[in-house]
Amino acid sequence: MTQTTSMAAPGNVTATRNGVEPRGQRPKPFFTPRKIVIYSILVLFSFYFLFPLYVMIMTSFKTMPEIRFGNIFAPPIAWTGEAWIKAWSSACTGLNCNGLAPGFWNSVQITVPSTIVSIFIAAVNGYALVNWRFKGSEIFFAILIFGSFIPYQVMLYPLVILTRELGIFGSLWAVILVHTIFGMPILTLLFRNYFASLPQELFKAARVDGAGFWRIFFEIMLPMSLPIFVVALILQITGIWNDFLFGVVFAGNQNYPMTVQLNNIVNSAQGSPEYNVNMAATILTGLVPLIVYFVSGKLFVRGVAAGAVKG
Amino acid sequence: MQHSVSIRDLSLNFGSVRVLENLNLDIAQGEFIVLLGPSGCGKSTLLNCIAGLLDVSDGQIFIGGKNVTWEQPKDRGIGMVFQSYALYPQMTVERNLSFGLRVAGMKRDEIGRRVARAAEILQIEPLLARKPANLSGGQRQRVAIGRALVRDVDVFLFDEPLSNLDAKLRSDLRVEIKRLHQRLKNTMIYVTHDQIEALTLADRIAVMKNGVIQQLADPHTIYNKPVNLYVAGFIGSPQMNMLEGTLNGSSFTTDDGTVIPVGNYDFAVPVTGAVKAVLGIRPEHMVLGDDVARMPFATDAEIEIVEPMGSDTLAWTKIAGRSVTFRCDSDVVIATGQRIRLGFDPARGSIFHAETTNRL
Asked: CATH number of the domain that A209 lies in?
């Protein structure tokens, strides 16, 4: 009898601790030290990042007299959308007082072609580097990657001269060209690695089937590349939309992108600073990348899932 | 005679690595050739060279009498089947089959006719509207074969087509490929590392090692008269038993002094004097029981391990101090530790020169 009791002892300890005999799925307690630490850190950081946004949104809906009161954390007493309307259509950017709207359309005109051209060229680059190895292709790739380590500012002046000689300085073409060039290293790396991960035999099979360079690219490779295209799209749209430097240098006065005009609104020297308009203008400018993240994030997950089904 | 595929002095280097060296191979019209060897022996590389997917460093390739050394894959009159199937994932089976024909700009009714014929031959008609992701491994490989079939080519190239399938499907599809060959009578070049596939399918097997064809012969010759120690060891499972010793005239003396008379052995080359040699004998050529009396060589041995395989039984023992295996009928009752009388006929075995490793 003593023997049996001593053998059953470990079981009894667990049983008394949980009040039940262990069986089936192990119970997962909600509060564990691990979870508490993780969630506290997450909450702390989201608070840290979201608080300025909260202040911005609240301020943008206030009137100037209310802002001068100083209670920046309090929600507006009287909600008003005037600052938003002014920021969009009548705030002064330098000499013009048309708000951010023209800048928005300039940014669209810059971002759309730059994104399409840079992604297309980079995709072809990556595809050629993986599947159509040519003599020196590795060196070519190394040089391209090296390009991504050089600070933009170093190449600014040479590019100004280059675009001037091409006769496109101060036009949309110049910004598109510059964005395409600077998107190339990272995007080519992205596409090269993605295409390298696709089975080589697919490419071989298509060659035996008689398809050439472009046919394989468009009919075999592109349909399999949705996930990486979404990644490239996110990178390029947000990168180009948020760009300030190339826009201010290359675009020319009438083509200034939204970021440059935002700067002009916020830094305008005349009169007292209109904080509510500044806040509204800033949120408006940041809206496009935000929407891209939210929308394509879902698409991205779907794309990855679709790409995971191997043929 | 016109060869279907001829390879002349083919060499291929990757940088300073020589993958294929001065390789020559003539394949007759309608022949089923298997390139067999361990991974890294250059067999897939050779197939890729024939397909035109790799540029050769030196030498020539003829297909159907035409020099295709510099031709694009599509112009060589070949169809290829890959180990990973390599089906285009975004296309339906029907579009997969017709892709090559559409690229070639063929008329629609002709494409339809060819796809229908291939689907009928391979019995994949119900699958035509499906995507590759919704097919099983065996079905995918059939579609891959179909893609080669619709091209109506002279030469089929198979690059380890069954290696990704499970054992049961593999043996099923093996039979189907053989049936397909009998029906189509195309030239087929088949790369594998699986000796069973090689022995069952091939008209002739080319056993390769380090980019060099060791032996090119029909399966029976490859199995029974391997040209060197490498081929002898590579083909056959379990491996051929190897006894090391000295050959002197018509007697073979093993290293521990056992004398095996080899008077009835059919020497490939005349041997004079005493030479160090290796006597190889296949496990199934060992006999026990009443038949031992008729064997030129017999000895007593103790069973060490018994492995019943169902169809037959493998047993491990020692002869002349060397561990050997033999195969016997599964009905024969043997047990570990039992002493038995075991014999064999050296004429059914192979004798190799110990240094050159070539067959004597």
From this structure: 1.10.3720.10
Instruction: Please give the residue range of the domain that contains residue A118.
Output: 106-255+285-307
Q: What count of residues does chain B have?
A: 360
Domain annotation covers residue A188: yes
Mutate to test the interface with B, among A208, A218, A226 (most CBs of B within 10 A): A208
Domain count, chain A: 1
B163 contact residues in A (CB cutoff 8 A): none
Q: Is B147 on the interface with A (CB under 8 A)?
A: yes
Chain B residues lying within 8 Å of A219, measured CB to CB: 88, 99
Q: Is A10 part of any domain?
A: no
Structure tokens belonging to residue B269: 């080359």
Residue A40 lies in a domain: no
- Under an 8 A CB cutoff, do B80 and A220 touch? no
pTM comes to: 0.81
**Complex ipTM value:** 0.86
Asked if the C-beta of B103 comes within 8 angstroms of chain A's C-beta atoms, the answer is yes
**Amino acid, res. A23:** R
Report the Cα A5 to chain-centroid distance in Å.
Answer: 64
- Please give the class, per CATH, of domain B3-233: alpha beta
311 residues of chain A, pLDDT tens digit each? 444 444 444 545 555 555 778 888 888 888 888 889 999 999 999 999 999 999 999 999 998 888 888 888 888 888 888 889 988 988 887 777 888 899 999 999 999 999 999 999 999 999 999 998 888 888 988 988 887 788 888 889 999 999 999 999 988 899 999 999 999 998 998 899 889 888 899 999 999 999 999 999 999 999 888 888 888 888 899 999 999 999 999 988 888 999 998 998 888 766 778 888 999 999 999 998 888 888 877 776 665 555 444 43
A204: chain B residues, CB-CB within 8 Å: 48, 51, 53, 80, 82, 86
Residues contacting residue B37 through CB under 8 Å, at least 6 positions apart: B43, B193, B207, B208, B209, B234
Structure tokens, A110 = 């810059």
Q: What is the DSSP letter of B166?
A: -
| Sequence spans of domains, chain B | 3-233, 234-353
Q: Is A156 inside any structural domain?
A: yes
User: How would CATH label the architecture of B234-353?
Assistant: Beta Barrel (2.40)
CB contact under 8 A, A311 and B88: yes
List, in order, residues 6 or more apart from B331 with CB less than 8 Å away. Answer: none
